[in-house]
Amino acid sequence: MLRLSRDTYLPHAVAGVLGARVEAVLLTAPDRAVISHMTAAGLWGVAIPLQRDDPRVHLTVATGSSVRGRCDRVVHRTPLTDPDVTTRDGVPVTTPERTWRDLAGVLSPAALLAVTDQMLDGRCAQADLARQSARWPTGRGCARAREVLPVGDPRAESPMESVLRWILHEAGLPAPELQYVVRDDAGELLGRADLAWLHQKVLVELDGDVHRQRDVFVNDLRRQNRLVAAGWTVLRFTSADVLGRAHEVVAQIRRALGR
């Protein structure tokens, strides 16, 4: 058995399973404790980039509660109303829109945009997030929520793509089209790009680990050749570029757009 805290244990076989950790922590949590913040995002299937791995379970409890955090849990004390809470697989959890608003208070704008894009992809509508933001117009994260929400787009296909979009947004570059399908004059498919600026004929691809596989790599090269031959500028970056040399990424895209 793995000891999570002084009175909470889990079999080693399920120690890495989020649902199992949540259920174990709730056994010794205060009445009406609700899963929230990063853990709620995980239960909703939302990935949060730019964060260190932290297995602790996030709980929101009543504002007057004296319960303290432990090595297996982070305790938040903020008001929750009935519309803020639902259940998922029998677990009390903050709704997607309330989870988003809570995360606005603790995440960077780039990470929050990644969360926003995923929330908008079938979990809630932009109007739902706007209403949640209006309900909490002051307090930690209020300005960040209002700033990031208009940039949200459910077409984003990866959290790192969202991070790149925020970097470009902060740099003042024009907003790109997402997941743009490129065809030639005869209507034949040439490829699809993560980000596209149509008037400048600039495409940006963010390559993940899957692009290192031989068959994917070969197809990428063939597609890139077709696009370049059709007059498109194609720029390809990795997460290492976005995280380690963002200023160079912005400069290269800016130069391409200015040609």
From TrEMBL:
Residues 194-257 form the DUF559 domain. This is Transcriptional regulator, AbiEi antitoxin, Type IV TA system.
